[in-house]
Specification:
heterotrimer; A mainly alpha (223); B alpha+beta (410); C alpha/beta (295); A: 223 residues; mainly alpha; 0% strand; B: 410 residues; alpha+beta; 4-stranded antiparallel beta sheet; 23 strands
Amino acid sequence: MLKAILYKEWIKLRWAVIVIAGLTVLSLAYSASMINYYVEFQGAFQNWMYVIGKSLLLKNIVFVKVLPLITGLVFALLQFVPEMTNKRMRLSYHLPISEKKLLLSSVGIGYIFLLAEIIFLFFGLWLVVSLTYPTEIVSKALMSSIPWFLGGSAIYFMASFIILEPSWTYRIIYGIMTYGLITKFYEANTYDQYQTLWAYILIVAVMPLTIMFAGYRFRRGSK
Amino acid sequence: MLNKISRYTIILLIVVVSALYLPDFFSMLFDKKVTTPRMDYSVIINDFVYTRNHGMGQRDRMDIKGNSYEEREYFRLLPFMYYANLDKWGQLPEEIEGIEISSKIIRKNSQVIRIAPKYVNPPLVPLNIMFEAEGDYAELIIPDDVFRLGNTIEFLDPTSNSVLQEKSKKFQDAMKKIGFKFPVKLSAANQTNRKPFDEGYFIVDANNELFHLKMIKGEPAIINTGIGPDLQIRQIYVSENTRKEFYGFILSEDNQVYLITYDDYKLRHIPTASDVEGQSYVADKMTVRFYTYPVNKHIQVIGDGFNHMIVLDNDFNKKAEHTMEWTPYAKRPASIAKSYLFPFELDTYDPLQYVKVSLSTNLPQALVGIALSLIALFIFSRKRPILDYVIVLFTGVFGLIGVLLIKPEE
Amino acid sequence: MEHVIECRNLTHYYGDKLVLNDLNLKVEKGRIFGILGKNGMGKTTTINILMGFLRPTSGQCLVLGEESHKLSPLTRQKIGLLHEGHLAYDFMTIKQVEHFYSRFFPGWKAEYYWDLMKKLGLKHNHKIRNMSCGQRSQVVLGLIFAQDPELLILDDYSMGLDPGYRALFIDYLQEYVRDKNKTVFLTSHIIQDVEKVVDDTIIMGFQKLLLKMPLKKLKEDFHCFTFRNANVVGVLKADHVITNVEFYNDKITLYSFKTKTEVLKHLKTLGITADDLAEVSMNLEEAFIGLTGKY
């Protein structure tokens, strides 16, 4: 039965997964060429000075920052908007599978695709940065990317949760809450600024639990 | 059951968001700006002076005895600070305390070093540049390689992103020869070419000994300063100055500040302690400023609600001392109100320049807010599961908001 | 006999508005039930509760022995639902949707689905999103048949269907249900269709159940009479004999479960002469209006 859920979610996501994979490759290629351009334009040593002293690399890899956020949002929209229009979610809730399994596996499957993209980005970033820069800079770039990946994960879970919630009042409340939380993942202005990453990881880890309440409210017909 | 856990997860997230934003929002609405005075010491009247801004763009210029001064009068009190203007107005004295004075002399004999929390240990990329310390040119030439200091010293060529083997080996051998023990614990330098000359790097080795490394005519020059293992060095600040009185200074783990003098690297301790509790220098929370002038030295320790200033003569003897105080953050009405209203605050701002989640709380007052929240919960919505009350008990108004917004489904 | 559906003291409020007032209903196995009721009379509410998408304010609604909002997955396997608007996974194709659903039902009878799909004449990779309402209704019906459930709940199956598809639907349903001892619970606004297929009718009135009886009996026992009398306004109203009465100028239309003789007798006790009392035959729609009123 979980395979069937995977089948259903895959049908909804497959084009997006392919497009995002393509965009990921393009972003990495773009980042690589941006880095190259700046090195050529500024001269290698001067470029390293800007990278080290003025966090220039963060500008060059901006797509790594933005892509997980977009992907998370798009996946959530593609998976759950078709399910919620015209109360279509009733179809899924009536399937002979427990609500818990239904919701958690739908979100889990979407997240696996998102996680695959994040891992792809991570290793791609590693490759691209280490072509030009030493390990000190590579490790700073990778550490800087972790909050962004957490942010992308967070928006996937929260957007799914908001879409699955039947009432607009609650959606607005959740929306405000989401905005307040997500911005916290993008506060760095230099490399590797995040300490206490465990707190951020913990918050993201509990987010999937929220969707059960949305499903529960849908089933009860709550407003 | 899972649905209940789900609801409490949502409430938890609301608590987190509220704790992150509401206290700051409250401050933004209700906090009044406190103007802090700028303190100084006048060698002309041998007393402390200060300026303080008033609301309407007005500025008070006073001495601590209560006399007030006009702008130009005030400038005359502080020749070492305002020599450029005074010179232009022809009002710069020709000698002070027996020492000849001119703009040029003042410039040459002044030095400022500042340690603010954000400079104590900020996030940096651990790659450095080594200047040629005795080059042919008047200005310092920016090199075209960088080096790393860790388990060894290695110079890197940015154009090829590879190690410069020869140069690296030269330095590795020199350091090994003098007994430097890798890995490096700490290194510091003044990494700009906008200074009169270069004094290179101060490096703490694995045995906690401090070494001084420079590059002279392309060759490594390294000395063991003798500053030993018993001093727990937290940070070093190098500041080159033609006065050549000190290389820079050391901040120790126990918040003591020492000048590294040119006299065989002898350390000179700078007084930053105060008799008043809470006003002795703590690097994470306070700023220390050290000014050297032709006839004296000023030390200011500035923290939340106070500025403790010590004046030393040129032989480092304490000449004068004064503390100015104003309402510290915690005693401002908005802060006091906050401590009752919010049981804790979550912050991601860190004065040391990191993004870090930190929790601050004022326990006795917080209980008031918690009690009020519990009562409010009871009034607004009588029948609630025990766990809702427990949450409000621990999170006060934040939990109240969460619990009231997200009603239990029954 | 075990009841497939059982509602006990079902009460529901929407905010302050009472929609269902202590509804009691028992549905036997193996028959086709048609639920009729005017909008706002609680029909939708009852269906939503039955389908498990509304938690009643109080009371119980048991479907196959379990509370309808807490049905176990195993029980849900035995219930086929047609949601209002013929809800389906629009993003799937004919082939994909069958492949998906078949994984959930061990007793999946694919031949029922494909029989209907053959009649539909569309390609297997035709997306449901690109179908007309009627075509989609066939897909949904096919899926329900293939699921082979014990109980079918068909909520407003006629919505959006033109007469051709409505007729097809009824035909297929009748064929499918025959000899299989299945219970069907359906609602519709097109009462002529309901008349063709149901065994029993359930009619919802204001906040409660008006009647539940086999269609045949309803047709036999429920009568419509007319007569002319200008002086009865105010005197003649609904009571234990007269279910409903309508006035138009001097023409009076009476509805009753009693026989003509009993009605005449009753009118006489009210002091009303009705020498020209005549019975008018009704179809189900007219009977429904007679029971619930035009407004």
